[in-house]
Design brief:
CATH class of the largest domain: Alpha Beta
Structural class: alpha/beta
Helix content: 25-40%
Strand content: 15-25%
CATH topology of the largest domain: Rossmann fold
Number of strands: 13
Number of helices: 11
Number of domains: 2
Distance between the termini: 28 Å
Shape: globular
Largest sheet: 6 strands, mixed
Length: 327
């Protein structure tokens, strides 16, 4: 989950990092020796690289993990928004080696101090010209931005789990590790196919997919949120028409959700504290629903809906929670 996806989160504190160059200075990219010239298509734009980038900044833990999984930890010059998700256990050791530029959104100075020659973004929202320069302005500085395919501008309601394969393939091309990317994509696809096979013919569980923030209830529908839930064997009871136009989340009254009497309530969380608080809130708000009465309160990390490699293990666990008898 990112600040743009949950604008109600507000902006958290930023770690101070001494700036090596000001916001109006173009960073000097370090020379690289690996990779070959290549061009990839990302969110409708063509990104060309004469050689593999060597100073990459990741804007979300899932993008950092994807680089690590491809064996590219040494190409990461820094990461931001680390407070949005702890790393998966299998990547934790390498993840700890990557410099944290900011726990949340960085300043322009902090971002440019890393002298990035590529930014891997979980969405275009960072680059609004206020918090950070626009993608166009960064391009003028010769800093390309690669956006997670599942959250392309104007396409976030169309996000699908399988689009992660494109990101894996593209990064494989950019960094000259195509064989490793193919193996990683095949592994992810096998994991997804295995879940689908287990759930073949299984009746979807009527589910409310929700998030609690500051004692307010939000529902999630559309894009990667619904695709993950449906693939895991859940029926999302929230309709797109109930949400603000173009958004996959929106605040809603508990009464509206309670009237639907969901058989399961899947709620997202960022950390252990938000998990505990959210569950307490939801148990009280939906005490009379079938979900609470039957103990079908299912917590899933918000990072499950962040794409890249994160959706695969998250979806797999969610499927097991919704359909334990199928596994």
């Amino acid at each position: 989950m990112s600040l743009s996806r949950r604008t109600f989160l507000g902006t958290a504190s930023v770690l101070a990092v001494a700036a090596a160059c000001g916001p109006d200075e173009a960073p000097s990219a370090s020379p690289t020796t690996s990779g070959q010239a290549t061009t990839v298509t990302n969110c409708g734009a063509s990104l060309s690289f004469a050689q593999a980038p060597s100073r990459v900044v990741s804007t979300y833990p899932a993008m950092t993990e994807l680089m690590i999984a491809l064996g590219l930890t040494d190409k990461l010059a820094g990461q931001i928004n680390t407070n949005l998700s702890p790393p998966l256990p299998e990547y934790a050791e390498e993840y700890a080696k990557v410099q944290v530029l900011a726990e949340a959104e960085p300043s322009v100075e902090v971002l440019l101090s890393a002298r990035p020659d590529l930014i891997l973004a979980d969405g275009p929202y960072h680059f609004d010209g206020k918090r950070l320069p626009t993608i166009e302005d960064l391009a003028k500085r010769k800093i390309p931005v690669y956006v997670n395919q599942q959250f392309c501008e104007g396409k976030k309601l169309e996000g699908k789990v399988m689009q992660a394969y494109t990101d894996i393939e593209n990064l494989g091309k950019i960094f000259g590790v195509a064989d490793k990317a193919t193996a990683l994509a095949d592994q992810a696809k096998g994991r997804l196919d295995a879940v689908k096979a287990k759930l073949s013919g299984v009746r979807p569980v009527r589910t409310a997919l929700v998030t609690v923030f500051d004692k307010a209830l939000y529902v999630d529908a559309g894009g990667l949120y619904t695709d993950v839930l449906q693939t895991a064997g859940g029926e999302n009871l929230t309709q797109q028409s109930e949400l603000p136009k173009g958004e996959y989340y929106g605040q809603i009254s508990a009464e509206v959700v309670a009237k639907k009497n969901p058989d399961a309530i899947v709620f997202t969380y960022l950390d252990d504290a938000s998990r505990r608080d959210s569950e307490a809130f939801l148990r009280a708000a939906f005490a009379n629903t079938a979900a609470v009465k039957n103990g079908r309160m299912i917590a899933t990390a918000e990072a499950t809906f962040s794409g890249a490699l994160r959706s695969f293990p998250g979806l797999e666990q969610l499927a097991k929670d919704l359909h334990p008898d199928a596994f």
